[in-house]
TrEMBL record:
<dbReference type="InterPro" id="IPR054491">
    <property type="entry name" value="MGH1-like_GH"/>
</dbReference>
<dbReference type="Pfam" id="PF22422">
    <property type="entry name" value="MGH1-like_GH"/>
</dbReference>
<feature type="domain" description="Mannosylglycerate hydrolase MGH1-like glycoside hydrolase">
    <location>
        <begin position="438"/>
        <end position="673"/>
    </location>
</feature>
<dbReference type="InterPro" id="IPR008928">
    <property type="entry name" value="6-hairpin_glycosidase_sf"/>
</dbReference>
<dbReference type="InterPro" id="IPR004888">
    <property type="entry name" value="Glycoside_hydrolase_63"/>
</dbReference>
<dbReference type="InterPro" id="IPR012341">
    <property type="entry name" value="6hp_glycosidase-like_sf"/>
</dbReference>
<protein>
    <submittedName>
        <fullName>Glucosidase</fullName>
    </submittedName>
</protein>
């Protein structure tokens, strides 16, 4: 790129980013809301599933899926959280609002989304409903979603039975397969929220009868208090009572909300948020009107199950209506901190205003996105991220001990899980991977979530990253909690990467660096880095072993397993993740050193640590064994025997591509500003040339006097890309596969100590239940890995000239530079969601109706991962958080590159 073109490119990026900055933070309505955290007091913080989670499990054997299940959910009061359909609550979940429905044919009121437990599905747990997140502003001042509710009896038993009878080789049996939508006998239920102010929330239901028949529907807008009074800590019990058929008075000492109003209710039904012990456990009830009282009244016409005095801790408006064929009806409600004589007088005006502001907000965010389809996909991606915020409450010490007012849990529970985490006390709004499939945080997932959040609400992104570094999350030994099923599990250490990425995006958008955020995060990340070094480098050789590392079943066997003869698994990806971590920490320290020279020493520490890891990757043990196989020109895991011998596990997976992620580019200008760092760095490079020679020729300057820190020299990078960009191996039409397609016809096989192991390319669902059954790394396309591949290629491009060319795809005879390849891979990922030449969206897979029906085709689901050949969505379906990265990928090309590169690529006046 010529100097003139380079300057033009930089100015173009800077001008566009300045435009985003101006519009995003000078849209007065949204700017005021974003700068006032009280606007986030209420939001979509209600789980889609509270049953079957660890927090609610008080069993003797730790079988969380069966201790609470869907069948008992309507009658059991939860200890730690609440669930509902399209629910909202305050940020401490003291008061919850959700909507229930009954089509007069189901066996129960539809108060929660149905799905299979892990043991019921042939491919693991899976929600069996259709709902879509369509819109939300960052402050939740406006939100919209869609739920498709069948008019005939919901096929609960059919879904359980048929999925249970299917093998792992067969597809899941989905709700649409039951035929329940065949005659359009369902309702489209659009649920919208608009805030008049922080504590005045308008609710609109727009319900469409999609069938040709006249059909009934009972609508039950429901409000209740989370039960905080039964556990023996605080016996304060709030109360609500009916003013009339269209209003409920709310009385809670800690809440400003006073009323909820309905525009067209027949009556109000009351019960209490108390477990029906008699029904579930054949013991006396503490309350006469239990949690399932309203359901019992609706389904069984049992007038004894609701409180005739019209008060309680749970209440529903009762609306019984008939819909003519194709008829649409609208229903209005308002939750308010005010006593309103005419609560619906300004209803449409407020809704219209909030919708308009939401459109204006996203119009500026999406400035430069070319097509309406890209805008639609990105806006729904943002909506999914925002709707999947959840109130997450889990105090491990209390959970282990049990509550004073309850029976003590079985003694065996003390050692089943999480007993090493008694300090952990979580009580916050947290971004979830998927509020049905994964209604608990996963720390490495969340790191990717924050990248998408940073584009629309960088303060929330920073808050999420800081949260897991606080003392009531991070273990005293420095480990970050993984997820509630095993808080001690190990995920890739990407937190430091996310901290710096979000810091830079925030700085660019606000024209001001948040150094307090960066410095406080760095101090805690030091503890986390030390934990990794102490716990996952068993031999002290800078080679990292064991651990889940987010790649459940990518290898030959469970990578946490204890091998029979004391062998250890030397992981190229574990070591590479740590090299990446070291570079991330070095880069943060360099940034802080620009403001405080004390951090130059820390930058040097991580510079040397990175060099040591790079050295170890190529020189293990006395034989100087390298995880880079010169014969295949690929990185492999290796087995190290007790006597020091090594053997490659020559399985080509994305494990061998992860060394690309350890890459950083620093220019001379920054080095000159840090004389102590420069002096020490020069000494190391001069006195330890064996280290310097390993790291991509640090002494050789690239374009614009840049230096490259990487595990890969140019030759190795090209050889890795040769395989990665080969359609017969890793390159799919829709991104980079997790396993080489070579193993589809020729499965990898090996015999270890008399046991045969095999790995076959499986492009979609897992064919084994060994790793949970619903998560497969042996062939599909995963967004987080693809995103890091793209970013790494962009970073390499910033160092290498545009003349550094690689064949793309391998065997095509077509050569592109690394920036062009990164862009091409981004387009492949975007193809998963965008309409193709036939109007189809690949993620919709094998169902023609989803591709052609106007009532389905433009509603986007963001799946956990994708079929390695045809792009079909697989796994968790409702905005699995890291797939929300598509929102970042769809940003205009120059803006995306701007944010991806370091500050040293920007003009000085842009910093």
């Amino acid at each position: 790129m010529t100097q003139t073109n380079n300057l033009r490119f930089k100015n173009l990026r800077f001008n566009h980013l300045s435009s985003i900055n101006h519009h995003l933070y000078n849209n007065m309505n949204e700017k005021e809301r974003l700068s006032d955290v009280t606007w986030k007091k209420w939001g979509p913080y209600v789980s889609n599933r509270e049953w079957g989670v660890v927090r609610e499990d008080y069993s003797a054997d730790g079988d969380a899926w069966n201790y609470t299940n869907h069948d008992i959910a309507e009658a059991k009061t939860y200890r730690w959280g609440e669930e509902g359909i399209c629910g909202i609550c305050d940020d401490l979940q003291k008061l919850v609002f959700s909507v229930g429905f009954w089509n007069k044919k189901d066996k129960m009121v539809k108060e929660r989304f149905f799905g299979l437990s892990n043991g019921q599905g042939n491919h693991g747990e899976d929600v069996k409903e259709y709902f879509y997140y369509l819109d939300s502003t960052p402050t939740h001042s406006y939100m919209k979603m869609l739920y498709k509710y069948p008019q005939n009896a919901f096929p609960y038993e059919d879904l359980i039975k048929t999925n249970g009878e299917r093998s792992k080789e067969e597809p899941e049996y989905e709700l649409i397969d039951t035929g329940i939508f065949d005659k359009n006998e369902y309702f489209d239920i659009f649920i919208e929220y608009a805030k008049e102010n922080q504590n005045d929330i308008l609710v609109k239901l727009t319900i469409v009868n999609k069938s040709e028949k006249e059909v009934p529907l009972i609508i039950l807008p429901t409000i209740w208090f989370r039960n905080t009074w039964n556990w023996g800590y605080d016996n304060y019990k709030p109360q609500m009572n009916a003013e009339d058929a269209n209003s409920i008075k709310i009385n809670h000492k800690d809440l400003e909300i006073k009323n909820i109003y309905a525009n067209q209710s027949e009556k109000v039904l009351f019960c209490d948020n108390e477990t029906n012990d008699e029904r579930l456990y054949q013991s006396p009830n503490q309350s006469k009107y239990t949690k399932d009282g309203i359901n019992d009244f609706i389904i069984n016409r049992n007038s004894q199950s609701i409180n005739p005095k019209d008060f309680g801790t749970k209440a529903s408006f009762f609306i019984d209506v008939n819909f003519k064929p194709k008829e649409t009806k609208t229903f209005e409600f308002r939750i308010s901190d005010k006593d309103l004589k005419q609560p619906f007088q300004d209803f449409e005006e407020i809704f219209t205003s909030r919708q308009k502001e939401a459109d204006e907000f996203y119009a500026e965010i999406q400035n430069g996105i070319k097509t309406d389809d890209e805008k639609l996909v990105q806006r729904q991606a943002f909506a999914g991220m925002l709707w999947n915020k959840m109130f997450y409450h889990y105090n491990v010490e209390k959970w282990l001990k049990g509550d004073p007012a309850e029976m003590p849990p079985p003694k065996s529970r003390e050692k089943i899980r999480n007993y090493q985490w008694k300090h952990l006390n979580n009580d916050h709004i947290i971004s979830m991977p998927d509020k049905w499939e994964y209604p608990w945080y996963a720390t490495w997932d969340l790191a990717f979530h924050t990248i998408s959040f940073s584009l629309i609400d960088p303060d929330f992104a920073k808050q999420q990253l800081k949260l897991f570094l606080f003392e009531w999350y991070m273990h005293p030994n420095g480990q970050l909690p993984a997820y509630e099923w095993n808080l001690s599990d190990v995920n890739p250490p990407v937190h430091a990467w996310a901290v710096f990425r979000v810091f830079k995006i925030d700085e660019y958008l606000k024209d001001k660096p948040d150094l307090e955020f960066l410095e406080s995060a760095f101090q805690k990340l030091l503890m986390n880095f030390t934990w990794w070094v102490n716990k996952k480098d068993s031999n002290g050789n800078n080679i990292f072993e064991g651990g889940f590392l987010g790649l459940d079943n990518i290898g030959v066997f469970d990578r946490n397993t204890t091998l029979p003869n004391g062998e250890q698994l030397e992981q190229s990806d574990g070591t590479s993740w740590m090299a990446m971590f070291a570079l991330n920490m070095m880069r943060i320290a360099l940034e802080l050193a620009l403001y405080n020279n004390v951090y130059e020493e820390m930058a040097m520490k991580f510079f040397e640590h990175f060099l040591s890891i790079a050295n170890s990757l190529d020189n293990m043990g006395e034989e100087c064994f390298s995880l880079w196989d010169e014969e295949d020109e690929f990185f492999y895991d290796a087995l190290a025997s007790s006597d020091g011998d090594h053997m490659y596990l020559k399985l080509r997976t994305i494990v061998g591509l992860i060394p690309m992620f350890a890459v950083e580019v620093i220019d001379d200008e920054m080095i000159e500003k840090l004389p102590n760092f420069k002096k020490r760095m020069t000494w190391v490079l001069e006195n330890k040339p064996e280290l310097a020679a390993l790291v991509s020729h640090w002494e050789v300057k690239g374009e614009d006097s840049k230096h490259l820190l990487s595990l890969l020299r140019g030759h190795r990078l090209k050889r890795l890309l040769h395989r990665m960009l080969n359609p017969d191996e890793f390159l799919s039409e829709f991104g980079v596969r997790a396993l080489s397609k070579e193993y589809e016809k020729n499965p990898f096989a090996i015999n270890l100590d008399g046991t045969d192991y095999a790995v076959k390319y499986t492009p979609a669902e897992s064919d084994s239940g060994l790793f949970g059954g619903n998560s497969n790394w042996r062939g599909p396309i995963w967004f987080p890995i693809n995103f890091l591949i793209i970013e790494s290629l962009q970073r390499f491009f910033f160092y290498y000239s545009p003349d550094f060319l690689v064949e793309y795809p391998t065997g095509s005879g077509n050569y592109l530079n690394l920036d062009e390849i990164a862009d091409a891979l981004s387009k492949r990922l975007a193809k998963l969601f965008l309409k193709d030449e036939n109007g189809n969206r690949p993620f919709n897979g094998q169902y023609p109706r989803f591709q052609t029906d106007p009532d389905f085709k433009d509603y986007i689901l963001f799946y956990e991962y994708f079929h390695g050949d045809n792009g079909r969505g697989v796994g968790a379906s409702h905005q699995t958080g890291w797939t929300g990265l598509i929102a970042k990928i769809l940003m205009p090309r120059f803006s995306k590159k701007e944010i991806a590169e370091s500050e040293t690529e920007m003009p000085e006046d842009a910093k």
